[in-house]
């Protein structure tokens, strides 16, 4: 008992000492309180402090209250703007033992250190001082070198101003971060400083107005955000829903009707056009309109900036989930919107260049559709916060693709059997006519063709039913997130 007592006393003293002292904010260190104005009523959920030290480090403190039992990391991002994407992140992980590590946000995806030299440099540039979990609070104090010993985007130079992004969440690995909450109503939704904070500032003269963050730190103001995070999220969700409707429902049914309904209802020609053509054109035009509106929404949400690959971006940035989604989505959109204009080049059915048009139109449409499905697949795989259950969303997209391949294969097989049957009947009739001294080419469409039409009609019904059902479930999973 006597041997255990000193350890208990030490633990109690450490726990009591491990707290963020706000009385020195603006005097010996800079502080950022969240939510805004909470320091006036002493009701802050999150407090972050920073102070330059003589040894060439900045000492950071993070304290987060009202933390759920599953929350096991606190993270601090050093950003040039007030949005996640392209910033270094330092986090404290509370798993088996407290640890501090650095990662980087490539778009909306967070990546741990990958290069051996960067991993080796981590311990000399970031140092954990202390970290504790006490009740519903997490506290972490760490030091980070102002001028890193290695040139790497993972290690920011702290002798400048940054917008701080604070987040907390649950992770399985101490060296990597899992997605945080994206629900603005949730206490675990990230906080943004709203100011570019000078992390290298020397606090050598007392400040009188410690509750005023701007006066306290004399930092560079940021432009007011054009819209709230919830509005941005709503626009992103609306973008996703509209793309699901356009590609997975409208385009899918339009393509199937053009490919497999050409010989249906030959005598019915409303406005001089066959029914399959009306279906194909109407659905595709509607889809293109929805695509354009969806494009406008996502650009508004992203402040009219391109988030895909670019020449000046790093390899990791260009191959992040967000960048790849933007790339495949852009290819699909450009090709999809070009199809109505491409159709204006359609020549007569008997024109010698008609096969060229047919194959180019089909090829462009197929490439566009495949790229759209890849973009949707990436969204379920990488943008997990946009779905109430990203696992189900991913499974549904895969199921949709597999069903699409099987249904197209079944339709092509039915067409192949029909062509063989027609060819067999035609050759038999031609042989009989030639034996009587006549030269006649005959193509017969009788009961077999009717059966073939019924098969294709049934397959179209299955395609439409599956497309609408899967799209509806995906929309619910996305809208309810």
From TrEMBL:
Grouped into one coarse class, the protein's main location is: membrane
Q: Tell me which InterPro entries the record gives.
A: Cyt_b561/ferric_Rdtase_TM, DOMON_domain
Which UniProt keywords are present, listed alphabetically?
Electron transport, Membrane, Signal, Transmembrane, Transmembrane helix, Transport
Q: Which parts of the sequence belong to the DOMON domain?
A: 44-169
Q: Where is the Cytochrome b561 domain?
A: 199-419
> Where does the sequence pass through the membrane?
236-261, 282-301, 321-342, 363-384, 390-410, 455-477
What subcellular compartments does it reside in? Membrane
Pull one GO CC term from this UniProt entry.
membrane
Query: Does the keyword field hold Metal-binding?
Result: no
Signal peptide positions (record): 1-18
Q: Does the keyword Signal apply?
A: yes
The record, for Pfam families, names:
Cytochrom_B561 (PF03188)
UniProt cross-references to PANTHER family, sorted A to Z: CYTOCHROME B561 AND DOMON DOMAIN-CONTAINING PROTEIN (PTHR23130), OS01G0895300 PROTEIN (PTHR23130:SF171)
- Name this polypeptide is given: Cytochrome b561 domain-containing protein
What is the scientific name of the source organism? Steinernema carpocapsae (Entomopathogenic nematode)
């Amino acid at each position: 008992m006597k041997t255990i007592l000193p350890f208990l006393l030490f633990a109690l003293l450490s726990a009591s000492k491990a707290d963020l002292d706000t009385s020195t904010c603006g005097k010996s260190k800079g502080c950022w309180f969240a939510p805004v104005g909470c320091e006036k009523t002493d009701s802050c959920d999150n407090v972050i402090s920073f102070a330059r030290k003589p040894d060439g480090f900045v000492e950071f403190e993070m304290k987060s209250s009202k933390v759920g039992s599953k929350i096991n990391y606190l993270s601090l991002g050093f950003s040039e703007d007030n949005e996640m994407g392209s910033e270094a992140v330092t986090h404290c992980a509370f798993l088996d033992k407290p640890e501090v590590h650095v990662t980087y946000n490539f778009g909306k995806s967070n990546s741990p250190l990958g290069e051996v030299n960067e991993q080796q440099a981590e311990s000399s540039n970031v140092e954990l001082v202390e970290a504790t979990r006490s009740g519903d609070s997490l506290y972490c104090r760490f030091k980070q070198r102002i001028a890193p010993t290695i040139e790497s985007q993972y290690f920011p130079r702290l002798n400048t101003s940054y917008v701080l992004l604070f987040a907390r969440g649950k992770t399985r690995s101490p060296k990597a971060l899992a997605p945080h909450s994206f629900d603005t109503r949730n206490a675990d939704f990230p906080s943004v400083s709203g100011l570019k904070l000078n992390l290298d500032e020397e606090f050598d003269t007392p400040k009188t107005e410690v509750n005023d963050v701007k006066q306290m730190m004399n930092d560079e103001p940021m432009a007011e955000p054009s819209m709230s995070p919830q509005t941005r999220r709503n626009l992103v969700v609306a973008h996703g829903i509209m793309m699901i409707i356009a590609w997975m429902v409208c385009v899918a049914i339009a393509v199937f009707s053009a490919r497999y309904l050409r010989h249906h209802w030959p005598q019915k020609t409303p406005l001089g056009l066959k029914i399959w053509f009306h279906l194909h054109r109407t659905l595709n035009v509607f889809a293109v309109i929805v695509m354009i509106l969806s494009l406008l929404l996502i650009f508004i949400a992203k402040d009219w900036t391109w988030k895909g690959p670019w020449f000046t971006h790093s390899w990791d940035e260009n191959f992040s989930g967000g960048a790849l989604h933007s790339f495949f989505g852009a290819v699909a959109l450009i090709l999809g919107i070009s199809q109505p204009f491409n159709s204006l080049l359609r020549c007569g059915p008997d024109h010698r260049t008609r096969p060229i048009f047919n194959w180019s139109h089909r090829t462009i449409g197929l490439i566009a559709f495949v790229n759209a499905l890849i973009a949707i697949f990436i969204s379920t795989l990488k943008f997990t916060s946009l779905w109430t259950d990203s696992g189900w969303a991913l499974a549904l997209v895969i199921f949709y693709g597999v069903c699409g391949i099987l249904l197209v294969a079944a339709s092509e097989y039915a067409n192949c059997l029909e062509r063989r049957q027609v060819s067999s009947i035609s050759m038999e009739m031609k042989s009989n006519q030639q034996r009587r001294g006549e030269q006649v080419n005959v193509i017969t469409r009788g009961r077999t063709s009717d059966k073939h039409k019924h098969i294709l009609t049934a397959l179209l019904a299955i395609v439409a039913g599956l497309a609408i059902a899967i799209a509806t479930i995906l929309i619910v999973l996305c809208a309810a997130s």
